[in-house]
Structure prediction request, 246 residues.
Amino acid sequence: MIRICIGIVLLSISIVFFGCFNESEAPNEILVEYSVFDEDAEGWIPEFSGFPAEMEDSMKLGFIHEPIYVSESIGNVSAFKQSGYAANSNLFMYIKQQVSGLRANARYLVKIEVELNSQLLTEYNGDLDNAYYGSFLKIGAFKAEPATTEVPDVLNADIAIVATDFDKGDINKGGDDMVLLGRIEYTNIGETPIMLNGKNTDNPIYAVTDDEGKLWVAVGIDTNIPVYQEIAYTYIVAQFEFQSSL
Prediction:
């Protein structure tokens, strides 16, 4: 678990550059962006998918920036919270952010590290010992903005499903556009939060920038249990390492 802090005062968002971006230098330039949600959401945008569009009002979808209590030694930590009720046992909650300052039309190696807390806001009596069930942390990097769209339900074409316009993979697996970091743990509301950490150091992502040297990154939770849960993101660091120009 990584905690960037002095007492309980966290660093504000910052961009750190190593090297200069010009074609004459060796391709070892790295950009690192930190988000610790010190004062606001810091450019992260919430999205929700995986449910019939007609059920949206009953999904209790929400997001807010506010502190959470971690422990007596750490105290309160700022967080960007995202919550929802997987009424149909299928909900993908993710946050996305656009990153600039990269080379245009270039291939980058992307590594993302996430610290979060997940709390179940309703009781679940199902089988969380089964590796298929639960909530799964995923990350991705994209040239175009990852977004949601409505598609016909495979069983009933009259029902519109809110879906992602990218391949996140099955609930407990990665896809063409996202990497699975693993299943997350929970605490019940009111209990001391468990801070969880995931990163793709050993499972890197490659992405191509647009004409303006920009990329999108996304962090999400894929859930297949019928619960109302809250995800509190407390720390996200994304590293972009230049590989080659196109």
